[in-house]
Each structure stands twice: as C-alpha cells, then as structure tokens.
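Records of this kind hold a single protein each, on a pair of labelled lines. Below, a sample record shows both lines together.
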Amino acid sequence: MTVHRIEEAWRAGEVPYRDGLYRPDDTGVELLFDGPGAYHPEAGQPLRWRVGGPLDVTRVLAEHGTGEVEVNDESPLPDGSGWLSVGDLGLGHTACLARLRPDRTLRWVVCSTLSNPFVRVRCEGRKAIVTNDWRNLLTLDLDALPFP
C-alpha cells in the first residue's frame, strides 16, 4: 500500500509550509497570491491567486517541512459534496484553505505564507468567500476552480 505524505500530514493536522495547493496523492501546484497580504495597511481588499507550475511535493516537504493547522471556520458546500475549512498555521501570516469530502477526508489543501490567517468561510450559491484577519476577501467560483 502506498503511503501518501500529504494525506498523512493532513491526518496529523499539518500541511506543507510553502505556497501551493496539495492533493492527497502527493501532487501539487504552486499558488501565487496577488493583492494585499500580511503587510498591507488597508483592510477589506480583495485577495487573488494565480496557478503556477507543478510542485515536487517530496522536495517541498524536505526543504520547507510542515506546519500545524489551527482550523478557524468551516462551511458545508451547497451541493452536499463536502466542506471548505479555513485556518492558519499559528505564525501570524500563514493561511490554510482545505476542501474536504463529505466524510471529511482531504480533496486538496492550500497553504499561503503571505495572505494572513483565514478566519472565516461562507458559501453563497456557487461562490465561496474566504476572509482573512485583515478582512481581505478571497472569492472563489466553486464551478471554475482549476482543481477538483
């Protein structure tokens, strides 16, 4: 049986400590956050991300390690297909966003080292609105995410 390190880390309450989106099969892509982050003086601004290239998850884990996730909020997906969970890694500037299956197993998890902790998530129709501790908003179209 193959042991997947991302799935193992998630079960232990941890995520890779590098900007990216990680899947339980040990694949990942780089995520680049645009807009205000940890050092932005104006609260309430939009956050955006861009999808970069593939990540070598084994290398990320070896070079950056993992951080312990503190879940701050969760919201069921409107179609019943699972949950969105948000939190932080306890360092003041890092954030975590996870999509979970109905049984709460991991579909994917995002780590962002510059977006500040995500403290709230809510679903409105097919959109998810994620809020960080500066009240900056990340709005996601659940039908158009570049990953399932």
Summary: The chain has a mean pLDDT of 88. The CA atoms of residues 74 and 85 lie 4 Å apart.
